[in-house]
Design goal:
270 residues; alpha/beta; six-stranded mixed β-sheet; three-stranded mixed β-sheet; 50% helix; globular
């Protein structure tokens, strides 16, 4: 391990963090509860992603899970506890989850989901906000909130951006779980990989991003793609032109162009 965890990371109960070969691994570590989300687990995820973003030993992040299920959504005991909440408590709890999703979506570093099992409700939301997702063919994906009288509100903001209105309506209004193949056809999942090859495929992909791509460029591209959809056309074009001009003056661009012109292969992770 290249990174020595802080005391806060060592004290995590439901999440593990480690960095190796420039890849930061954030692992959901509550397999006995199917990695179900609770307020405490959301807090720990926030801390882990905050650490990964600032970790010099981490260039790309992999979100993965222990056990047979990636994440089954909200914890049953926590759902029961929420029955006693008033509006103020519910808003605070909802904001807590919203902050996690926004944090991951706008993170400077690329986030890859390694989905080894079913991802439902809030668990499917975690997959939605990853930049890339690898999944095993037998995994199921679904936003099941409407089936229990709940609302898939927070994830809808990100899902609309990712797969469009028609597919978002199909997923959210039916609440049906879909196959990994359909999730891939919808654009929710990028790659389907046999279970025994999942970790190795994710590792190779993450390492390729580390070695072949400028971290500075990936960071700027992620920010650009997050901001452009909310801008009017002319504003987005001016914004893009400004980013283009700024990128030309960056150290990474100078280094990359120099290597290109001299026909040298550049290795960014060194």
């Amino acid at each position: 391990m290249e990174d020595m965890p802080t005391q806060e990371l060592e004290d995590l109960r439901f999440i593990r963090y480690e960095a190796q070969d420039s890849i930061g691994y954030i692992t959901l570590n509550r397999p006995e509860k199917r990695n179900a989300l609770s307020a405490e687990m959301v807090t720990e995820l926030k801390l882990a992603f905050e650490h990964a973003e600032d970790d010099a030993a981490c260039k790309v992040i992999v979100l993965r899970a222990e056990g047979e299920v990636f994440c089954a959504g909200a914890d049953l005991a926590y759902i029961q506890e929420m029955q006693g909440f008033g509006y103020t408590d519910n808003l605070a709890d909802s904001t807590h989850l919203m902050q996690l999703f926004h944090q991951i979506y706008t993170l400077k570093k690329v986030v890859i989901g390694q989905v080894q099992g079913h991802a439902l409700a809030g668990g499917c939301g975690l997959v939605t906000i990853c930049d890339f997702a690898f999944a095993v063919p037998e995994a199921k994906f679904g936003y099941t909130e409407v089936k229990i009288g709940f609302l898939p509100a927070i994830v809808s903001v990100f899902l609309l951006r990712k797969v469009g209105e028609a597919r978002t309506k199909q997923l959210l209004l039916t609440g049906d779980a879909v196959s990994a193949q359909m999730a891939q056809e919808f654009g929710l999942v990028n790659f389907l990989v046999p279970r025994e090859e999942l970790a190795a495929n994710v590792y190779r992909f993450a390492r390729r991003l580390c070695v072949e791509n400028s971290g500075q460029s990936m960071e700027s591209t992620k920010e650009m793609l997050a901001r452009i959809p909310e801008m009017p056309l002319e504003d987005s074009l001016r914004y893009a032109a400004r980013l283009n001009a700024e990128a030309r003056g960056s150290d990474d661009c100078r280094r990359g162009i120099a290597a290109f012109l001299s026909k040298e292969k550049i290795v960014w992770d060194n």
